[in-house]
UniProtKB/TrEMBL annotation:
EC numbers for this chain: 1.2.4.1
Presence of keyword Oxidoreductase: yes
Annotated source species: Cryobacterium algoritolerans
Record's function text: The pyruvate dehydrogenase complex catalyzes the overall conversion of pyruvate to acetyl-CoA and CO(2).
GO biological process terms held by the UniProt record: pyruvate decarboxylation to acetyl-CoA
Annotated protein name in UniProt: Pyruvate dehydrogenase E1 component subunit alpha
InterPro entries listed in its UniProt record: DH_E1, PDH_E1_Alpha_Subunit, Pyrv_DH_E1_asu_subgrp-y, THDP-binding
Catalytic activity: N(6)-[(R)-lipoyl]-L-lysyl-[protein] + pyruvate + H(+) = N(6)-[(R)-S(8)-acetyldihydrolipoyl]-L-lysyl-[protein] + CO2
Gene behind this protein: pdhA
């Protein structure tokens, strides 16, 4: 189809498109629904202090700091466990992105949905999933969030409405958009928050998803966590428009860039975006962060010079935010130390729990692969005929 520019610089299609009749969402007519299964015993809880709207006032900032510190100590512990060969597969850390994570998660209601990528441990913990279960998943143990079969990149928890955890760059985007469509279809009040990295904005699914979300007024907030690097490639080497929030304008979607080292700024921007999405106007947020270490735990990040690393460390959100709280008289050294000690103890507890959790039984290897039982038993080799099905082994108990 031919594309032309209007005098105002807006691009319009030269031939008429079929008008989409979906009207803008009206929150007042919406009923709370559980679009998955209204009878399921997975009613979300708000027991986690970092989930839902924080209490107004200074306590909220201390809670942000507490949440950031927990992610920091958890991730450091995960990195150490990886070097001890206790964690298999890939492992990507949220170190440097703690303020972004807590600010975003605080803007969600327990009933809202979260999709994220493989850099996800901090989101899981802050969304309210027990750190023990998150660490157990890293260790591939049966008590893990995904029963030990998913690992670091594939955490899924229906109760906390965290629908992954995706290892394919951008794999979460069409699924998150589809979830938003399902909510809209059922007139639900929930929204979807979908995070991704800066490198993800150059794949087709990014553009397809934003286009359809804007066109159909879907209740979704897309969040680009811009840590300035996609593996070893800087944003300006990968993106013709490195100010990534501007990409939303191609879809007439509202967007905003926010300082990801400041949890309050992230929270406030996320609150605005969530309110807009709930009213049927999707938003793109770009959250500027730093990646303190390599792409994954095995990346020594030699592509950064010593000078660059000094600048990155100067922008570490933990000491930056602590200094602000101290300057404002909201935090003293004693409380800061206590928060650190509690987070360290919590990470140690999670590690001990994970080490003591059993590995999943091998008989469960083919569980969760198909929705219905099929003779996909472990004895048949690829290519062997299907006409003589081997007996279905007894399914494992931990399903
Ligand atoms: C479709 C696909 N292509 C390539 C990869 C390999 N890969 C994994 S992470 C990554 C970089 C993504 O960078 P970004 O989106 O900025 O996220 P970040 O890792 O910085 O959080 C790439 C290319 C992949 N997992 N999936
Ligand atoms: Mg990146």
């Amino acid at each position: 189809m031919k594309i032309t520019s209007t005098p105002q610089g807006e691009r319009k299609r030269s031939s008429p498109m079929t008008a989409h009749t979906r009207m803008p969402r009206k929150p007042t007519v919406r009923k709370p629904t559980n679009p998955v299964d209204p009878t399921a015993a997975s009613t979300p809880t708000s027991s986690n202090p970092h989930v839902g709207h924080p209490t107004p006032g200074d306590d909220r900032l201390i809670e942000f700091y507490r949440g950031m510190m927990l992610i920091r100590r958890f991730e450091e512990r995960a990195a150490r466990a990886y070097t001890q060969a206790l964690v298999g597969g890939y492992c990507h850390l949220n170190l440097g992105e703690e303020a972004a994570v807590v600010g975003l998660m605080a803007a969600l209601q327990p009933t809202d949905y979260l999709f994220t990528n493989y850099r996800e441990h901090g989101y899981a913990i802050t969304r309210g999933i027990d750190p023990n279960r998150v660490m157990a998943e890293l260790f591939g143990r049966a008590d893990g969030v995904s029963k030990g079969w998913g690992g670091s990149m594939h955490m899924f928890d229906m109760e906390k409405r965290m629908l992954g955890g995706y290892g394919i760059v951008g794999g979460q985007l069409p699924l998150a958009t589809g979830a938003a469509l399902a909510i809209d279809y059922r007139d639900g009040e929930e929204i979807v928050l979908c995070t991704m990295g800066d490198g993800t904005t150059n794949i087709g699914a990014f553009h397809e998803s934003l286009n359809i979300a804007a066109l159909w007024n879907l209740p979704i907030v897309y969040v680009v966590i811009n840590n300035l690097l996609g593996m070893a490639t800087t944003v300006d080497r990968a993106s013709a428009e490195p100010e990534l929030y501007k990409r939303a304008s191609a879809y007439r979607m509202d967007s905003e860039r926010v300082d990801g080292l400041d949890p309050l700024a992230v929270f406030e921007a996320a609150e605005r975006a969530v309110a807009s999405a709930r009213a049927g106007k999707p938003v793109l947020l770009e959250v500027m962060t730093e990646r303190l270490r390599g792409h994954s735990v095995v990346d020594p990040a030699k592509y950064r010079t010593a000078e660059e690393l000094i600048l990155v460390k100067e922008r570490d959100p933990l000491p930056t935010f602590a200094a602000r709280l101290i300057a404002d008289g909201l935090l003293d050294d004693e409380t800061m130390t206590a928060i650190d000690e509690q987070a360290t103890a919590r990470a140690s507890e999670a590690t001990a729990f994970a080490e003591n959790s059993p590995f999943p039984d091998v008989s469960t290897l083919f569980d969760y692969t198909y929705a219905t039982p099929v003779p996909n038993d472990s004895r048949r080799l690829p290519g062997e005929p299907l006409y003589e099905p081997a007996p279905i082994p007894e399914r494992g108990t931990n399903q």
